[in-house]
UniProtKB/TrEMBL annotation:
Superkingdom: Eukaryota
Domain CHAT span(s) in chain numbering: 891-1225
Pfam families cross-referenced by the UniProt entry: CHAT (PF12770)
Coiled coil: 635-662
Name the record gives this protein: CHAT domain-containing protein
InterPro entries: CHAT_dom
Keyword hit for Coiled coil: yes
Keywords, in A-Z order: Coiled coil
Amino acid sequence: MTGELANQGLPTHFEGAIARSDELMLLGDYDAALATLESLETDSPCTIEQNREVLRAKARTWVARGYSQRAKECMRKACALSREKMNLQQILTLDVHAAFVTIVACGEELENGEVLCQARELPASMRALTSFSVEEIEAEGYLHRIAITRQTICQRKLMDVRPRIEERLRPFMCDTQRKNRYRDLWRLFGPFSVSCGDILTAEWLEDLLSGESRMPDIFRGLFRLELAKIYGRTGGLHDCSIQLTAAEAAFEICGHLHGALEVRKHRLHYGFTSPPDVLGALVKIMEEYCRMDCPLGVLQSASFPLAHAFEKGDHRLYVKLQEVLNDVCTVGGILHERLLLHLQLLASMNAGTGHYAQVMELGSALYREFCARKWWTPAFHVTVVLSIAETAGENHQSAQHWACEGYELCKRESLEAELQAEYHVAQIRSLEPIAAGPSKAVRLQEIISVIEPLVELDVNASNNQGACTKLCLMASLQFQLARLNRATPDVILAMAYGSLDRVYALCKSLEARERAVVTGECQELRIAQLLFEGKHESKNDKEEQALHIADNLIELYRSAGLGMQEANKYRMRAMCNLQMWQKRSNRDCLVAAEKDLQTACTKFRAASNSQAWLGSQHELTRIYVTAWEKYGLPLDPVLEELQKLESIADRLRRELSALNGLPALLQKQRFASTTSVVDLYKWASVVNLTAQRHAELWFWSQKRKARSLSDMLGLGIIMPSTVKQAMAADPKIELEFQKLLAAQSRLAAVSENERGFVREEIANLEGQLRPVAQFREYLDLRDGVFKGFKELEALNDASSISDRPRDVIFVDWILYGDKIVMLVVNSALRGDGVRLLHLTISVSDINRWLGRNFREDRDRRDCLREDSIEDQFCPMRELDPLISSLQQCTKPADLLIFSPTSCLNSLPLHALKIWDERCETGVPLIARNPVVYAPSISVLQLCLARSRTRESPKSAIFIGVYDRPQEAGTIYSQMDRLATSWNGRAACGVDVNKGSFSRLIDGVSLVHYHGHCVFSGDNILQQSLVLSSDNKDGGTATKPYVSTSADEGLPNILHASQKTLQRDDQQSATALENITNVDLRPIIDEVEQETILQLDSTAQTIMLTVEDIFALPLSSSPLVTLVACDSTTQTIATGDEPLGILTGLLCAGAASVVGASWPIPSRTGRMFSDAFYSELDNQKSFAASEHNDNKLVDIAVALQKAVLHIRNCKETSETYHWGAFSLWGSWLYKQ
């Protein structure tokens, strides 16, 4: 430094202090550099120009340290000072400096971009370097770094700035080198090295350092360190070690504070030093930079430990490091680094394939932010990650959406990645499953035709790695095409092997590790083809050939340190052995496959690759089930493998909760339908049923059912006071508990980009607190963990409010093949209370019955109206065997909990016939026993927990929305009357719209709705409660008529269907007087169907859909009563996963839901409401008179009596009227 100053003449005190601060900054002594600058401001008055120079020097120091926002503030102040004495060149260099800090250091954009356009007009001479000031040379470097940064975030075609930068800077660098202007060389080195690339930069550095005798030690150390980095990246490890040693010596002489750390970091990374824990040593370097308060040093030292943590499969440490870096970027104000780190985290989480929900949450947020900032290249990379994540989750339509989104983005913005995006679309399309046949062959040929020209482009551009990747995919598609083409398979196979031969030739130029990966992919394709050929030929040695290749691949990947690929090959070798066993029935092959899959599971688990772990465990469990069936393997090891498979599936399912609400439930239900999960519970049922382990059979049945729903409900469980008291007993545990509460509160406040870090912290804290018994019980309840007979004890306790002794009986139906068995579990008898009953009705019987009687609404209505307990020939009597056996193992008045399975969810089981000992005759089941429905016992427990921990009711809301004036008036009067009786309030008509509904129900403990519900089995998410439109200009809101009844009268028929009767309103009213005795039922039935179809056009303005209901604020765990058509009708997915309004209400926070399973007359609904609330009121009064302290009333009994009241009325005695009503969830309501 002193040599350069001497060449420029003797500096003033001010210039010397500025130069000294610059030297201290280069040495990494940022505190001293800033202190030197502070002393200039305080020791003597400074001119405006001097103040500006001090502020700029501070900005340089803050940028070097990693505090970009502080640098930006310094530049703001510098730019705000008077510019009267500045010429144009000085103004431009100042503005360019400010632009550099804003764009490159902070990752933001300029409000006014004109300054950069003006700055490009700086003198363009590249020869007369001496005519440039230090500030102008600095501005030159800043301009190039800005251009490179912008290109990094938006890499457009034909807009590569690197050649232009190299052309401009190379003469500068040579001239500066001749004049020994090392500080200026260092100012320009960053953009120069990026523009030249590693090879040319290494040559330039070698030339520079060959005559280093006059070079100051600080620059000798810095330049040698840069040369060492290039050698390390390009594989010259010997030369890298030599340069690191030379750099270390130079740093030691000049006293560089960070030099030794940088040298140690690279030695650790490249294996020149081998401590017991390399990763730990790298993390310690990050910690040292943290102690030095150097954010940029932390970021620059993080890439190596991140890479090591990822390769080691230490996901927890990886995320923790990312969290530290996120905090560092936030503190330093380094926005672009933070976002790019989030992109890196996104890709790494997706590589683990066990963090789908967090990938989608973070990825969606990043995509929105990148698009808003017009960072198009990172935005494209996000679409690639998201499409891969969706493919891994078997969401192929969403995967194609994201792939096409990225391709369209590249085309629109003319990005360099357009060809990459085109290939990625083809790759995603190739992974979509499609049934074998002509359409699949066409699809494969289309994808191949897209890939072929892309391969040639890569080859011409010497991008051999890209060409090899594409050729491998093309060969895979050609092999698939050959398997479909029975006419000329040899021709297509020759093309596939030709593609592989080309890969072998091209990959010779790749580095060893890349070559191993590419070669392995080729060999994997050969294995797959050999297995296919071996499967279709009885006598050959194809499997032995495949095994030999797999053995070699395992060794290849092991020697190359490719752990994930090695694990995959163990799994592939297991498939070879399994196929050999299938052909030869040789047990040794089955044992070999077992060992390979066990190894694969161990490796996938260590690498945190949960998806691959699940797949391997699924195959391993299949082997155990097969050995049990074929060779009599003992049951215990089979059950152990089933439990392992379930625990992995549970982990993946719970992770989906990060998506929140309806998206989480939909993804969980989709996951429940995957082969691994379906097979898990099928195998468990078959094993336990065959072994006559009835209790275990029930456990597995309940664990299978509605797991997604129990997860969602569990997230809303309030932490009981007993848990908080247990935490407070131990000061250390109390401290961790408070951290957990703080993290849970913080989760809702942080951005989507940072939620993953908070979730990781919560998971770690919960793991530390899990040993506390009370806290563990809370977690099990929240996570919907099935606890077996402990669940039954809770049911029995919950039933203790009854005024007479009764048992709680849980009834489950299990379908296996075409058979149905009923499991009846008495909560008071634990294991002794499990009975298995084989039913005489089959699954095919049920499906045929549904097709005849419940296929259309009219069929169902006719069936229910014709139903009669006494008539043995009416259709409903065919279903009685589903429940008639309950007479053997239950008593009248026992509380029955029904958990229907599959197609049984469509049936009114409580309306079927059973023998009643009290009157010695057949009666509807609901007349003998109160009935509660629950998707599973875990869901029921969560609902009971809500109702029992609910605070005392705050209020009730009674809502009525109806479109027929006469009936609407009656309904609204009833709402007012009920609201008065229950000390609540009523809201009716135009007061109830989408905007007001959420406010009306917020915080209440009882919600009653009387109105219309629209149900469509084709799109259950559009099942809706009909509200008033937002029109409040008086009168009834305008909306189409929706009938809930066939006997509501004719005026609305005329309003609804102009096709039926072409009359105006006045004529319609007159016509009614003359035709009141005419049978209009056929016309009414037709109009009802037409009316439903007319709703779609206004659904967005007057419908409260399932998606809306998921977001309702039911924080007080209310009882919700829906007097509306089909309000408890749901679609049932694989795993008995329900979805509909009922599911939405439970997920939103409801503890109990009462509703109707089919369209009912409004008048019947009013009768039910009066009877239901009257019975609840009677129970409240009885509890008060008996001084009942628990303040709980029995909803199930109230519903039973209300239903029987309707049934006992002559005009509503048909099953069509009373059989629709059912209770789901908790049967308790807190007064």
